[in-house]
Amino acid sequence: MNAIHIRGATKVFNPGKSSQVEALADIDLAVEPGEFITLIGPSGCGKSTLLRLISSLALPTTGSVEVNGKPAEQARLDRDYGMAFQTSGLFDWRTVAKNIELPLELMGWSKADRRRRSSEMLELVKLGDFAKHHPSELSGGMQQRVAIARALAFSPSILLMDEPFGALDEMTREHMQDELLRIWRDTGTTLVFVTHSIPEAVYLSTRVVVMSPRPGRIAAVIDVGLGDRQASTRDDPAFFSKVTEVRAALREVEG
Amino acid sequence: MNSLKGFSAPIVAGVALFGLWEGVLSVFSSDGFVLPPPSEIAGAFIDNWDAVFRGARITGFVVVSGLAAGVILGVLAALLVTRFRTANETITPLAVAVNAIPIIALAPIFNNWFGLTSPRSNQAIVVALVFFPIFINTARGLTQVDRSQIELMESYAAGRARTTREVRVPNAMPFFFTALKLATSLAVIAAIVAEYFGGRQDALGPMITQSAGLTRYDDAWAAVLAGTAIGAVLYASVAVLERWAMPWHSLIRSHREET
User: Fold this and answer.
1) Which class is domain A4-80+157-254?
2) Beta-carbon count within 10 A of B165 CB
């Protein structure tokens, strides 16, 4: 069974009005469980819209989206996926631990279980000492780590991330990429990740989905196949050749 | 130590201001007819303590009850328009239109509705004046929410009521308290001005008009002082309530000031 299966999905905003926008056309995509998929493309190529279709925060105009063998809507109601956005979306009025516990509260976990889980998650993102802090006391990178911990807290089978590292500086960003890969390996979560950055896409994913704009289509799907990432991967010729390949595909769609 | 430092500067400035006021008047206007010196106002305040205290109690009740009712109605209306689109399309334009009416100008008309000597008309003015800033600001706070936070709640399959409780209400708190602070001073002004036109005759409003009419300006000022005290106590209470209700907010502020 595919973790995600999109068949002939299209998305039209404001259909029939003068402001009609064809955001996505003919999207077919199948994602295996445990894959790390990156969506990349120029602005307006509908990559965020595609992510929203997968999460059923938006419904396709035609076509279907299945997640774990059920309609996306059902998967959302079954809480099959976690989400992280470009802005951390943390609640200022909750402590760091309480932010991570929010989804667990909604799922009716007991207080002791929530406490245990949030401290585990904080260890995972290396913020064990910050449980009682409020988000406003944390740096941008730390906030983003809390958001990831929150998304992973209830062990969703699928993690959807919309440019989560977009607002971070380069050093923090690379560090966060390694953290995410470690978490992905440790948890076996299926990951769909939206980014603007070609090296980020290549470094992180098993497959890079290159999208073209107006309307958004899948222009190319590139198998990365770099194996386990290490610090040296970023300087590996194989890494650079994949970067070149993705860049060429992107040039073509923009050309 | 830090909080003490925060208080000492305005106290020094206040004492200096009163000193200047007293000093200037003793040189230029010793009869105290145009503006009585602080010492005379304080004297009138103590001499008329019984009447001033009774007036303050009556006006204070009008202020507090009107404020409470206006706040409750404003918050309920804000929750309603955030929850229901039709309510929003009906109430909001109506509220904006009604808000264009200079409500204080309705005081003599309200007296006709509720009875010339009934404090009900004064309360009604306070309620109407308090309602709008509370309603508009709270509604704004409930709707101007970080979109990703709403989507996050959706992704958790959280119900609408839960999303309101977890996201919209805490988000609206700073908006609400800003409006509430504004409303406390509005409520005192509304009550006293409304009392100029009717209501109980031993309230602060009539005390000011009657004393001024008899050129007993020190008594009028004593009543003004009592009104000021009501406003100050209310404002301070709201500030304390705000800190208690939003401990995270002062944290954000202090953090922003640091960076």
Assistant:
1) alpha beta
2) 12
